[in-house]
Amino acid sequence: MVSAQTPPSADDAVAMAKNQLGILEYCKGKGYVDAATVDIQTRLMGMLPPATDASKVEAAYQKGKNGTVSSMGQEVNLADVAKAQSTAEEAMCKQIGAAVNQAAAMLPK
């Protein structure tokens, strides 16, 4: 029997989005994405409900700013993810940035 994966809680979703914001800021600091991409992620986050566990969200954000992807209790360094996928950290940053920009293109103006 195959069990369905449990969807993230509202706090988990906000923490993942905030972690991604931190990752994008980390990538921006290395020159891999631009400020507009960080601004888009910030705007996307404004569409999420407020988190009830602010410390969890802040911890996820700080991990992202240090280059650590944190999602649903799993943590891995962005450089390690890139290495595991036989690519560079810069490529991973650009891939995340492209996904954010694509999501923004679907938002109402």
Automatic annotation (TrEMBL):
Domain of life: Bacteria
Name of the protein in question: Lipoprotein
Protein's organism: Ancylobacter moscoviensis
